[in-house]
Sequence to fold (726 residues):
Amino acid sequence: MYLRLNSDESAIKDIFHSFFESECSIERVRLSQHAGFDTRAWERLIETGAPGMCLPEQIGGGGAPLTTGAIVADLVGEFIAPLPFIEHLVASRLLASLAPDHDLIPALISGENIISLTLQPTKDDHAKLVPAGTIADAVIACKGNDLVLASGKDTASLLRNTADLPLAHRTLNGAETIASGNEAMESFSRARSEWQALMAVALTGLGRKAVDIGVSYAKERYQFGVLIGSFQGLQHGFASTITGVEGSHFLSNRAVSALENDSDLGDKLAGMAFLFASEAALNASATSLQYHGGYGFAEEYDIQLFYRRAKGWPLQLGDPGVEYQRIANLCLPSGKVA
Amino acid sequence: MDWSFPPEAEEFRTEVKAFINEHLTDEVISSTHEGTIHNWDFHKKIAERGWLGGAVPSELGGGGKSALEMAVMIEELQLAGAPIDGMGVAIVVASVVLELGNNHLKESIVPKLLSGETLVSFGYTEPDSGSDVAAAQTRAVKDGDEWVINGQKMWTTMAHIADYVLLLTRTNTEVPKHKGLTFFIVPLNTSGIEIQPVHTMGTERSNATFYDDVRIGDEWRIGDVDGGWEIMKAALKYERGIAGGQFPSPPLIDAFVDHAQTSKRPDGLTIIDDPVVRERLVRALIDVEVCRGFAYNTAFLASEGVMFGVEGSMTKLFASESYKKHSKWFIDMAGAEGLLYLGEDEAPVGGLLDEHFRHAPVTTIYGGTSEITRNLIAEGLLGLPRTR
Fold:
């Protein structure tokens, strides 16, 4: 048992922290608000090897475990980076697991092409509200009992949304079938779990930063002649909030490890971590926003960006209430009496 | 990160589970419903396995169970709902005495504690000092070779079945409050001690203890005169890792699921088939997994020899606050029958839902209230100014 980053992991974290500091500063994040994507930052991310880091070495990937991807995902959250790192990682692993020889793989590993996956049910040839839908060169979707790959950038237009996400509807017209039946559904379910677990890690990073922003503000802002950070009303709110974020940290990283180790608990823990992290991150953002007073509501202050992202990222999967019922069916019995 | 326990800890988990299967009978669990939160037979069975001594650090002469093995044991006992308050007290007091006590205390108390024959009650809190524990006013005054103690303690739980009390006293009123404290381990059969029951909302009995010209020899003192705060810190140190409280909810969840699977609501729906019930159960199960992450982290830190503080505070805060929330949800979702008390024939799962609802509030109070705990997190983790 070792619940910190080991020295290799710490080194990786340091490298990527520098990357995000220079490429995803809050100024840069604001500049790409309308597109929901920073092209230049993605081009620089390609240079780090991150897009293909968690793909098998045999096909040219970095061969890193999912836990390494989680180190980057945490930073994606901390910097609310407008980069489809998680979608790309998960969808390219999905494609590589089913069609390792696919022509698209090399460009996905390098990051020259971006791939995403649908998280909403598809109808006919329409994939609605696809994450990274405006920028993905390819999209994997569940269509009936098939998994299909729609390649080629179409002219999907961005749908303005709560969290400045690059959401778009995509067509599956002409998509190729890459797997069918049980294999397809199990692989897709696995990818969905990976997305949930990595998203939980990202939301943890987001939540931690949101608390940090609020606490820093409370250490600068005076009211009634004293720092507002000296009020127990704020202190206790921050303490409860950071406790939720820390809980989310351990649960989401345990979920990633469970998936990496093919544990039977992987699916369940990923769903649980996702649901818990979603609430912890929003609570952290909302609490810090509240303690800014009126300024928290002002566009000029960064905390509102965290508040909106904390809702937008997880809601791409749909109503969490549905997810609670799915986890219930994994964990709970039904009635014994008719 | 590596979340796996080493093989010896997993083997020990199997052993503990088998022990629980054999010895944690319904009678043991229901024995605590009479008010005393301790079961001597079960406690002695744990001692016979050597697990009390095993928990004492090996550098103090203990049995050298690792921090991770202890975490596994505490987790399994809590998941099963075993009465383990006495176990924690025995391990903490034995460890403190072995580290800082004199030979008299080491010889007279430690063997009996670790064999499960005797217990020590904690005597910190007073009528006028709870969270502000260093404000204790119970006086100890030297008179020749003896000490004379006068005062009163609150929440000396288990004092009515214990042989000793670990007593925090004031020996100096001329210095800042933390610097004038001295600890004694006082035999409870000493003349001048009176124990009165304090009955609680949660069925469990606690005590108030009164000290009226209690005379004891200096051999019962532990630590230096006016050096009591060091003993307090040592006790807190040994509580880390072995103090329970990380998993209060699982026995309640198990009980509710049993009930919900076999009971119908007035509208005819089996309780567990209601989506609202199912969502709440999942929320509770998620909270338990969060507690597990916190608990494993503190076990990991203990295994690394790290003196953690705020990590334990977060564990305690989250576990107790979520448990209190769960206890409210589950009594609600049992409907009006949820109100029925232990012993009522129609009470769901023998009245456990009511019992948990009445017990839960104390868990956000004892061992550091949620408010003090939040203060510690705000100061220790977030660097916000101390306000007390």
